[in-house]
Amino acid sequence: MRDITEEERQHYDRHGVVHLPGLLDEDWIGRLEAAFAEEMSADQARLNFVDFKVITPMIKASGAEFVTPGVESATGRFCISSFNWHRFPALATLFCGPPLPEIIAGLMRSNRINFYGEQLFLKEAESLHRTAFHQDVPYFNVTGDKFCTVWIPLDVVGVDNGMMGYVRGSHRWRTHAASGFVTQMPFPGSPLPKLPDIEGAEGEYDIVYYPAQPGDVIVHHANTVHGATGNSSSQDRRAYSLHYLGDDVRYREREGVTLDAGKSPSLKNGDLVDSAEFPLVWASDEGYVAPMGADPLSSDP
Ligand SMILES: O=C(O)CCC(=O)C(=O)O
């Protein structure tokens, strides 16, 4: 495991994204792989789990079009499992313990780090779905500048199997409406504007795609516009995204789009985000802090 450099920190500030090659060691990645397998073999009806094949009829009934043409006949699944870390002690240990929270504190120049939650992304072989360009902010019940997403691949990733792309500098854009991940159509009820058609005009934007491999992480500011290519290869592409909050982040419930798992019964709009749902995990004066409200960690998947 290594520290980040000043150059990497400045790159994040300037572009809203930084690729950190070789940050995590084999042991950490091996434990995350085991946790991924455990989550995928759990009873998905008890998780916040979406398989886009299953919800395709619903997406089509809403009038939305997929950003990837011809995807309905693709054989593989694209699945997202969100905010289930408290059901899997292995995930809690990896995401709330060393080394990521302290590294992220350094990157965002924050004295404290709270954990908002994680998402598992599985693009099975020949799943084809592009991840539509989007910003993360509108999906989350928080607001603030020190808010980032850490994307961790568990497979070698290139252009044909779900490579992540980022619009450089878009962390300073205004925030646009959340969409359904595989379509550009905004969720109904969002007061925010629709993102432009970036998939249809990639050449007009300053987009950087990063090939990546296990051990690398890519950190983006939560307002940075990003998406991913489809998986036309014969290998699955597995990844986790982690969402960390720094010391300027405040609670703000948004209309319509967020999962119940991203809400707090104890926080009011404007409160600093620190609660059992979004626990403090690292502080400059205390080091690593076991998540508050540890009880939910013991519940079964
Ligand atoms: O892995 C993907 O395809 C998308 C990931 C993503 O959108 C995110 O981490 O916010």
Distance between the termini: 30 Å
Q: What is the N-to-C succession of helices and strands?
A: HEHEHEHHEEEEEEEEEEEE
| CATH level 1 class label | Mainly Beta
Tally of alpha and pi helices: 5
Number of strands: 15
Uncertain segments are 293-301
What percentage of the residues does DSSP assign to strands (E)? 15-25%
Judging by the overall fold, what is the CATH architecture? Sandwich
* Overall pLDDT: 92
**What portion of residues is helical?**
10-25%
Q: What is the CATH superfamily classification?
A: q2cbj1_9rhob like domain
| Integer count of domains | 1
Given helix and strand content, the structural type is alpha+beta
Identify the overall geometry.
globular
List ligands, each type once: 2-oxoglutaric acid
Main beta sheet: strand number and arrangement? 9 strands, antiparallel
Tell me the Rg in angstroms.
18 Å
Task: Please give a structural write-up.
This protein is α+β, with helices and mostly antiparallel strands and 301 residues long. The chain has one domain: Jelly Rolls. The protein is built from five helices and 15 strands. Strands 1, 2, 3, 4, 7, 10, 12, 14 and 15 form a nine-stranded antiparallel β-sheet that branches. The longest helix has 16 residues. The protein is globular. It starts with 5 loop residues before the first helix and ends in a 13-residue tail after the last strand. The C terminus is likely disordered. Bound molecules: 2-oxoglutaric acid.
